[in-house]
Amino acid sequence: MTGKERCLAVLKGEIPDRVPISTYELVGWDRDAWENREPSYARLMDVIRRDTDCLYRWSAAWPERGVGYFLSASEDVEAERKTRRDGADEKTLHVVHTPKGDLTSRTMARRGVHTTWVEEHFVKTGEDVERVLSVPYAPREPDCSSLAVARERVGERGIVKTSIADALCCVCELFEFGEFTVWALTERATVRRLLDAFHVRVMDQLRAQLEAGVGPLWRVVGAEYATPPYMPPELFAECVLPYDRDIVDLIHRYGGYARIHCHGKISRVLDMIAATGADAIDPVEPPPQGDIDLAEAKRRIGERMTIMGNLELAMLETATAEQVRAEVGRSMEAGKPGGRFVIMPTAAPIDVPLKRRTEENYLAFIETARELGAY
């Protein structure tokens, strides 16, 4: 089977020739990805291209106009950014001039680390909530012209995957996370107003991309913010289930596949994740980061959902090669029965240069997965 056939088979509930192997955010066939331009990643990326199945990360381009922070293309509100250097750090002040007053946020990026930290969030008070809701809304139109390039690059080696943030993800990230969990428990009506407002925008963005032919695989992001111990299952049912079910239903109407992304302790909400109707889930972390082992997850949802993941990035960064091989063996033993399993790390390294131990452990993971993956 080709990588494309293998990936589609597990999403359909069919058994492929072997377990698909994904390196998640390390995409060998995206020549624009920073990992493919970083010399310390070159050897690993060569092996990824040769020996794994590609879930090609692709994203639409969105217009510069409007207030992208709030998924609005309205030009009736001005936003500005001011960036300054502080040694190896780049710090940015974001200001949105809403009809009810200014909103401010601060972010920081560090040279050599491919991520961004939020040092100050937009919403800190009830007044800030009203400012967010006062921002005029106009749907954004995606530029999907690069999709054909992505599909040509991946070819038969895999499939294109794109991500959509659900309403909870959009709303939660307006707040400092600890404060949001308090709001979710004590200001449920206010949080629900925000979720409902952003859900309209999320669905408009999703529909516009589906109309443009985006797919086949969609990664739905946000559910992990409502998992225990951060929130009780009743809030997962309120803040995730109805919104993500709408997303999944729309993706299915256009012939696509949906995958719920949810780190952490998912045991008490796993059946609700399955109830969204999604075709897959990732990353189903093993204990202690998670609270359910792969065999139990397979027993509970394995006939309804494809499980992707189960290898902790921390293990790949710190373990010995022998420990990695043993862990891959355990994942294969639990994940293979009945199909619907993709072995995959829970995240990807972001450091430059790539550490030698991480490289060697990724190579051990890929080699062992190929040795043990045949059906």
Q: How are the SSEs placed, and which strands pair?
A:
Elements: H1 3-12, H2 42-51, E1 54-57, E2 78-86, E3 89-98, E4 101-110, E5 116-120, H3 126-134, H4 147-154, E6 158-165, H5 167-172, H6 177-186, H7 188-211, E7 217-221, H8 233-239, H9 241-253, E8 257-262, H10 270-275, E9 280-283, H11 294-301, E10 306-311, H12 313-318, H13 321-335, E11 341-345, H14 356-372
Parallel strand pairs: 1-6, 6-7, 7-8, 8-9, 9-10, 10-11
Antiparallel strand pairs: 2-3, 3-4, 4-5
Helix pairs in contact: 2-14, 7-9, 13-14
What does this structure look like?
This protein has 375 residues and is an alpha/beta fold. The protein has a single domain, classed as Alpha-Beta Barrel (TIM Barrel), CATH 3.20.20.210. It has 14 helices and eleven strands. A seven-stranded parallel sheet has the order 1-6-7-8-9-10-11. Strands 2-3-4-5 form a four-stranded antiparallel sheet. Helix 2 packs parallel to helix 14, helix 7 packs parallel to helix 9 and helix 13 runs parallel beside helix 14.
Quick rundown:
The chain is an alpha/beta fold. It is 40% helix and 19% strand.
